[in-house]
Amino acid sequence: MRIFEVMRETKETNIYLKINIDGTGKYKIDTGIPFFDHLLASFAKHGCFDLIVKARGDLEIDDHHTVEDVGICLGLALNQIEKRNIFRFGWAIIPMDDARATVAIDLSGRSYCVGNYEPKREFVGDLATENINHFFESVASYGMLNIHYEVIGKNEHHKAEALFKAFGVALDLATKIDERKGVISTKGEVKL
């Protein structure tokens, strides 16, 4: 089993994250931001990852630090995945009613994030929609992976949820074990 735990404590947040890459989609998530919890649950369920997130942040200021630091912790956990004998690349196109999200990822050992999510309103529940892009930037930066995503639609709830579902499905594919693969790189290694 590929199980990774990360703890991060700063003056702004206290985060515990545990992910089982080979899980079944069980989750227990409490960030203090209910809609963010919902998005992380969608990621875990559709990616078949067992995910525990316990986050306490300075929500009296706003949700930015909590969302960012959960992204950092998820990235740090994903960076621990052995890059040998995995698919490395993953992609998904996920519809949700009026919305459609496309995500492509590469567990490349290089950080890059390109996304086009442009929210039409400032909040869904207590989550500032601008922090959705920042979450993916944090995951990519600390996970040393490429994330490319596009979202279309009218309803912000549907757009965000489709995006997190697509991220889960794409990551599930990228982390699948395939003993034939070895290290998928003409360099002979996947790292900086």
Automatic annotation (TrEMBL):
Its main location: cytoplasm. GO terms for cellular component: cytoplasm. Keywords: Amino-acid biosynthesis, Cytoplasm, Histidine biosynthesis, Lyase. The keyword Transport does not apply. This is Imidazoleglycerol-phosphate dehydratase. Belongs to the imidazoleglycerol-phosphate dehydratase family. GO terms for molecular function: imidazoleglycerol-phosphate dehydratase activity. It catalyses: D-erythro-1-(imidazol-4-yl)glycerol 3-phosphate = 3-(imidazol-4-yl)-2-oxopropyl phosphate + H2O. Its EC number is 4.2.1.19. Pathway: Amino-acid biosynthesis; L-histidine biosynthesis; L-histidine from 5-phospho-alpha-D-ribose 1-diphosphate: step 6/9. The keyword Lyase applies. InterPro entries: IGPD_sf (IPR038494), ImidazoleglycerolP_deHydtase (IPR000807), ImidazoleglycerP_deHydtase_CS (IPR020565), Ribosomal_Su5_D2-typ_SF (IPR020568). GO terms for biological process: L-histidine biosynthetic process. It is found in: Cytoplasm. It comes from the Archaea.
